[in-house]
Structure formats: structure tokens, C-alpha cells
Amino acid sequence: MKLRVRGHIRDLLGFKGLVPKRKKRFAKSPARAVGVDPMNKLARRLHPAAQHLVVAEIKDETKTTKTFKLVADPDSATKELACFRAGQYLSLRVEVAGARVTRPYSISSAPFEALDAGGFYEVTVRERQGGFLTTHIWENWKVGSKVGSSGPCGFFYHEPLRDAGKIVGLAGGSGITPFRSMAREIVHGESDAELLLLYGSSDQDDIVFQRELGELEQKAPDKIKVVHVLSCKDVSMEGCERGFITADLIKQYADVDDSSFFVCGPQAMYEFVEKELATLDLPRRRVRRELFGELEDVTRLPGFPQEVAERTFQLKANIGEVTVDVPAKATEPVLVAMERANLAPPSECRSGECGFCRALLVAGDVYIGPEGDGRRAADKQFGYIHPCMSYPVTDLEITIPRGM
User: Fold this and answer.
1) Which of 36, 290, 328, 385 is deepest in the core (most CB within 10 A)?
2) What residues are paired with 324 via a beta bridge?
3) Does the 304-399 domain belong in CATH 3.30.930.10?
4) CATH H superfamily, domain 47-149
């Protein structure tokens, strides 16, 4: 032990002897601008906290769907678009009727299209009856409209180190958008994955990207296969499947034992497909799900207290030194109640995953669905919630981070 201690002392003295020499070398080295860290600068370029965009083009895809091309706003600090991976989303930041809100939208263009001068993102928005932001976008966005956005977010992308080389995409309705991005990336040669896409639609005349998906399939027939699944009564399309995306249909087309499954669509489609996938006995790591945002009907989830479904509770929100009391409906997330009061709470995924809206539950109770609880174990223990997926079942008091 004594020899070991003496050795440590000798090493320490030797290190101290190097200090004067290093100081001299530092003094002779070129001066570097104060506050400029190359790694931090690169990180800000790759993962900007905010991007300032402008609508450059609007394309009608179907009777209910439009694609908006977004480019960097030349009058802003955003000089280039952040790169992303096929399947990620942007959290758009928009003011609607005096309230600042955010909503995540999958990027439907490919990553290579965002690079270099003239780069762009595309987001494809389906008009939804009663949709809070979709209606505003359809009625108000024009070429030249300015749009705030986060950097690209999310984990719904193919990672060769984690996922199988064969992707089985299970899409429903506007859930096709991230798969369009993946397919474009494959055709462009930026991805070695194979994509089998089972795409469910309830209206033959409202299939998003129908022609383009066929063209992408023709360009890379050994890499991409698209199977349309129609649940409507009147069908004239040739080569499609009828009904829904069932386990039997999946087994008919997919190599179940050697594929990774990616699911994206509306809430009802998730609920149906999850049950079908369960019968295939797949390892959890081989099923990935895109965030579907706010639930269309939280009362359908197991464990939701039906006796409070029609009630409105009082929410006390503490933000810094400000305390505000706002009404909060049992069937709407706590986050929405704060947005209606124009508190501009921070949020990105709106699906309980990212933790950007994390808040401390000071008093009261909330309902959190089993699929929307992305909290860490420590947060559950110490009373933190994600307001985007927390529904009030009593009067509440919460403390939230400052807004954007």
C-alpha cells in the first residue's frame, strides 16, 4: 500500500511540474474569440431551438389534404435548415385567435431535400373536422406566410444499428407522411433499407400521394412495395386489398421474423393494429410507433373515470412569479387548457414522449393513458407530469416551465 501511495504522489508531483510549461504554450497559442465553442456552434446548427420559416408553395394533394413547402425565412436569423432523419417531425408554432399553440407534423419531404441552398421541408396537412390548428392552416396559410418551428424532433426513423434492414410500414390516412420521406430517401440512394408499405384508406378518392407512391415503387421495385388497403364499400382500384390491416394480411406480404414494424396513423388505427401485432408475438424492440399527438377521444381508453367526462375543473398554473387560474375540461389535456388561456406553455411532441412540457403536479389528480405515459421512473415517484398527455380529474395546481 505504501508503495502505491508513493507512486501516486510521484505522479502528482510530475503532473504539477508540467503546469508551467503548459501555461507558456497556452500563452503562445493564437487567441480564440471569447464565447465561441466550435462544438456548441455545430450543435446549434444541427439542433436549433427554433427555426423561422416561410411558406414557399402550396399543393393540393387530395380533396382533404394539402402539402406546404417551407423554406428558411430570408428576413430572419435562420440562414439554413437543420438536417433531419426520414420519419422525424417539426413542432410548428402558430398563433391562433390570440393563443400561441404548437402542433407536431411529420416532415413528408426527404432529408436530402433540406440540404444546401434552396433547401426545404414539406409538411402535409389533412383537414380535420373540428381540428384546432388544421382549420387555421387551411384557411390562413398562403405563399409568404411566416411560420415558427422547432428543429426536427422524434425517434420514428430507421436506425441500422437497431432496426432490421426490412421495414414494414403500417400507415393509415395522413399517417403516410413519414413513409413518403423514407421512400424518397431510399430511391435517392441515401438509405439501404427495404420498405414494404401497407397503406390503409377509407376513401378511394382521398388516398394521399397515390400517384407518387406508385412512381417511387417503379423506380426501386427491389426496394419498395406499396399495398393499398381500402375499407370503403365502393372500390374500383385494381390490385388493392379490401378491409383492414390485419395480422393475416401482414403475414401474407411481410417477412414477419426478419422485419421492423413502423406504425403511423390516427388513434383508431393504432388501437386496431396494436391488437393485430400482438398476435404476431413480436419483440418490443421491433415495433416502433409514430406519435399521434392529442387523443381524439380519451374516454375510450381503459381506466378513464367516465363519471368526470362532462366536468370542467379549475387549474391553478404557476409560471415563474405568475399564478393564473384557468378552466380545464376533463376530456382535454392540461396543456390545451393553458394554451386557451394564452400562457404559451412549452411543448413539442404532444404525445407524452419528449418531456419538453414537463411540470410539477402540486395538488390534485390527473388521468394518464397507458400509451401516453413517457415519464421517467423518478418523475413518476416525485410527482411530475407531462401536461400534453395528462387529463384533469379533480381541481389541479401545477408548476410549469416558462413558455417559449
Assistant:
1) 328
2) 317
3) no
4) Translation factors (2.40.30.10)
Q: Among 56, 79, 50, which residue's Cα sits nearest to residue 69?
A: 56
Angstrom distance (rounded) from CA 89 to CA 86: 9
Could you please state the CATH topology (level 3) that the domain comprising 166-175+183-289 is classified under. Rossmann fold (3.40.50)
The residue type found at 204 is: Q
Domain ranges of the chain: 47-149, 166-175+183-289, 304-399
Span 283-324, pLDDT tens digits: 989 999 876 566 778 888 889 999 999 999 999 999 888 899
pLDDT, tens digit, for every residue of 15-58?
455 556 666 665 666 655 556 677 777 777 777 889 999 999 99
